[in-house]
Amino acid sequence: MNSDTLDTLDTLDTPAAIVDISRMERNIATMQKRMDTFGVRFRPHVKTTKCLDVIRAQLRAGARGVTVSTLKEAEACFAAGIVDILYAVGIVPSKLARAMALKRLGCDLKLVVDNLAAAEAIVSYCLDEGDAFEVWIEVDTDGHRAGIEPEQDALLDVARTLHEGGMRVGGVMAHAGSSYELHTPEALRALAEQERARCVRAAERLRESGIDCPTVSVGSTPTALSAANLDGVTEVRAGVYVYFDLVMHNVGVCRLDDLALSVLTTVIGHNPEKGWVFVDAGWMAMSRDRGTSKQARDFQYGLPCAIDGTPIEGHLLIAANQEHGILTATDTKPGSMPESTTSASDETDVTTRFPLGTKLRIFPNHACATGAQFSEYHALAPSGELTVWQRLHGW
Questions:
Q1: Distance in angstroms (rounded) separating the CA atoms of residues 219 and 200
Q2: In angstroms, how far is CA 355 from the centroid of its own chain?
Q3: 20: helix, coil or strand?
Q4: Is residue 189, in this structure, part of any structural domain at all?
Q5: Which of 121, 218, 279, 310 has the lowest CB atom count within 10 Å?
Q6: Taking the complete model, does pTM exceed 0.85, yes or no?
Q7: What confidence score (pLDDT) does residue 348 get?
Q8: How far apart are CA 92 and CA 109, in angstroms?
Q9: Residue-by-residue DSSP string for 276-299
């Protein structure tokens, strides 16, 4: 933790990103214990927090290595003494020199590919440089985004190109991103098993072809928390679990009192006729992410809470302009579209219940997107003390 301390939530300027340390540490401990029970390595994805204070807490709990989504994250982690780094975004030729610079400083950097062109580019670059990378192959286990399907010929074509070109094929990795679209334990368990089985099958095909494949890496927060079996898997990755958010709450893998990230905001005005409360957290603070809009419960732009983190029942942040958020009483029955339920007869209610200057906290839809709006977090200790944690920006 840094030494720059502030006083309390009551006096902190707003909007501000608040990390509840107790909740965060509980989330970290729960995930790590689960991975330890399975006997697999846990490699957290740091793209959610982009914060060395949080990453150090994950490593202290037992995580081994990190997953990053930008080379800037990799550089910052390596500068902080973290050597084992998976860059889990498909590499392009223009970034190979920057990756090689890290490797030559002593970083155990793993690259990821999912197509022949990328594999050929790595081999060509390394032949010119007289060096080599460890490369993992991304496997598509759920048709969600990137990767090679485990039975495709391309899997062996890519692996042979890397192997024969002098690269080390370090493993296969998968990300069951479609888990975000699910919401029942049965569906989540089934997808976790599908992710495991298909990634393990890809590794088996490589080994059968004579190419070593020591690592089988799977992971998303929902599947990591739902898997009943990890046979054949050597490591798991997950990121948003450290904070959780409203999307994860709707998926069903956390409770509201597990959410560790919120935005502190101040009431800056009212529209009594419409029953609106204006706060200084617009989309510049909350982000435009509307990840709950297709889920059973739409939280609009966020769930408002009292300053102690207790949700304010029947209210949502229904709109977000650049610097203004609009909070109102809503119909929040599952599947409904929230609309104001405040009538003209309640005109004075919003001004008396939420007086000008009132401090509130808002839980976000997507912790990664909301965190990205801030250059720093204010970490809240059980004592009420706030500590500034710096956050990485850029690529």
A1: 13
A2: 35
A3: strand
A4: yes
A5: 310
A6: yes
A7: 55
A8: 15
A9: EEEES--HHHH-S--TTTTSSS--
Q: Examine the fold and report which residue of 242, 272, 307 is the final residue of a domain before the chain moves on.
A: 242
Q: Where are the beta strands (DSSP E) in the chain?
A: 5-6, 16-20, 41-42, 66-68, 84-90, 108-113, 134-138, 168-173, 215-218, 235-236, 261-271, 276-279, 303-305, 315-320, 325-329, 359-363, 376-380, 386-390
For the chain, how big is the Rg over CA atoms in Å? 23
CA 262 to CA 306: how far, in whole Å?
A: 11
For the chain (395 residues), the mean pLDDT of every run of 10, in chain order, is 64 97 98 98 98 98 98 98 97 97 98 97 98 98 91 97 98 95 96 97 98 97 97 98 98 97 98 95 97 95 97 95 95 44 56 96 98 97 95 94
- Angle (CA) 312-300-295 rounded to 5° is 105
277 lies in which domain range?
Answer: 256-389
Does 302 lie in the same domain as 354? yes
Q: Is residue 67 domain-shared with residue 156, that is, in the same domain?
A: yes
In this structure, is residue 11 part of a structural domain?
Answer: no
List phi, psi (to 5°) of 91.
-80, 145
